[in-house]
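User: Run a structure prediction on this.
Assistant: Running it now.
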Amino acid sequence: MSERKSSGGYPAEFVHTRARAAFNRTFQKTAGYLVRKRYNSKIDHDLYGLDPQRSFTQSNTITNDELAWKLMQGRVKVKKHIARVKSNEVVFVDGTTVASVDAIVLCTGYDPDYPFMSADVVPRDKSQMYLTVFPRNRKFPTLAVQGCFRMKGLIIVAIEMQARYIAKVIKVNIYTCN
C-alpha cells in the first residue's frame, strides 16, 4: 500500500489533517477548561465582570495578582460600555456618570477597538499611529494607546516598555505644552 493513501482510500494528508484538527479542538477545550478552573479558584471572574468571551487558549492571557485584591477592596471598579467622554467626566451607556476622572484605563479585551472614539481621534488601523502608541494627527501627544500590537513571546515586557516611553513623553510635554 502506498504511503499517500490511508484507510478507506482517502489521501493520507486528508485523514491526518482532519485527525490533527480534531485533536487540537479537543485539546483546546480541555486546556481551556483546566486553565479557567484554576483561575476561577483564585477569583470568580463572573462575579467581578472579568469573564472573557474567548477561551484562555485562544488569546494572550495576562495574569495580574494585584487586580483580584483591588477588586475585592473596591479600589478598582469594572464598568462596561462607555457612551462618551467629556472633559474629566465619563458617561456610560447605562446612564451612570463618573466625575473628576484623572485617568481612564480601557481594557478592551482582545480586540483593540474604541467604538466611542471617532476615527479622527484614534485611527481604526493602529499601525498608522506613531510607534503604535500616539495618534499622528494630534497637536500634542496627550493621548496614548498602549498594547495595540501582536507579538510572539512575553507581551507584558513590551507593554511595560511602552508605558515607560509614554511616561517620558508625557513628562517632557507637560513643560512644553503649557
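The chain has a mean pLDDT of 76.
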